[in-house]
Amino acid sequence: MTTKMLNDGTVIPLLAYGTATVHNNTDPTPSILLALQKGFRHVETARVYGNESFIKSAIEQWEGGGREDVFIQSNWGETSAVGYEHDPERSLMETLTLLGTEYLDMYLIHGPNLMYPLTLVEAWQKMEDFHARGLVRSIGLSNFPAEEIEELSRVWKVKPSVNQVEYHPYCYRLPRMQSMLALCHSHDIAVQPFTCLAPLTRWPGGPAEVAAREVAEKKGAGVSAAQVLLVWARQMTGGPLLTTCKKEHQYEEIFDSLSLSLSPAEMELISAAGRSAPQKRRYALKVWGDAASTGYVR
């Protein structure tokens, strides 16, 4: 598995297998086990997904390795419901117990609006404490715009290693996305894109899908539109990349994308297609407040 070194020295696999959405209301154990068998060494979860025990089960069933061979990433912050009191310590301990592990390789705050009654600074201090105690080896953010990252930068002792954000051709050019990406790069914070395949899965038939299929067809050799969009997101952000699948042939398709690259002209074709359509998001709409969508508002 191709890897990337983060700003804290953590070596992270460039591809992460996500366990949200597509696995809702199902037992994801078989899919996670197949992901491990096919070569994934990075599994992403979150307290709100409620599937940590399935990840534990998949790792236990995997004959090719054990816990020490899997990079496990999780998030805390379960809901934005008014008055819900988050307890990050309890959340982490429950996650560790359900995963059957003594540590997490990476732990993220799931969003800047998911920390009540803690302030942003207090929440990050909790993360730094978990890191100092060896409970988590790398700490980061999810769905954080530039303004909140800038606020943290004035007080952090440990810099976030990652900011995990929705990223695809239909949202990349939004000003808040561009300012976030620029700030992350200035602080050497890796950007982990997710929902990269939204032009195919969420909003099919649009200009970004047409452009991705055009690039894929010209490349030939079995290259798919999904691979083109994954490569586009990786080259735009630098990765690591978060994606998921359930069908067996898709695992190889995702891995094969690591050996592909897009030319500047091909990148611009995808980007221009995204710019030609209304800008939209699937997740964290309240956090960003800059795009309309029929997606999940948190």
TrEMBL record:
Active-site residues, record numbering mapped to chain: Y49
UniProt cross-references to Pfam families, sorted A to Z: Aldo_ket_red
Keyword hit for Endoplasmic reticulum: no
Domain of life: Eukaryota
Transmembrane segments: none
InterPro entries reported in the protein's UniProt record: AKR, Aldo/ket_reductase_CS, NAD(P)_OxRdtase_dom_sf, NADP_OxRdtase_dom
Residue stretches making up the NADP-dependent oxidoreductase domain: 32-273
SUPFAM superfamilies cross-referenced by the UniProt entry: NAD(P)-linked oxidoreductase
One Gene Ontology MF term: oxidoreductase activity, acting on the CH-OH group of donors, NAD or NADP as acceptor
Keywords attached to this entry: NADP, Oxidoreductase
Chain sites annotated for binding substrate: H110
Similarity section: Belongs to the aldo/keto reductase family.
Descriptive protein name: NADP-dependent oxidoreductase domain-containing protein
UniProt organism field: Dioszegia hungarica
Lineage: Eukaryota, Fungi, Dikarya, Basidiomycota, Agaricomycotina
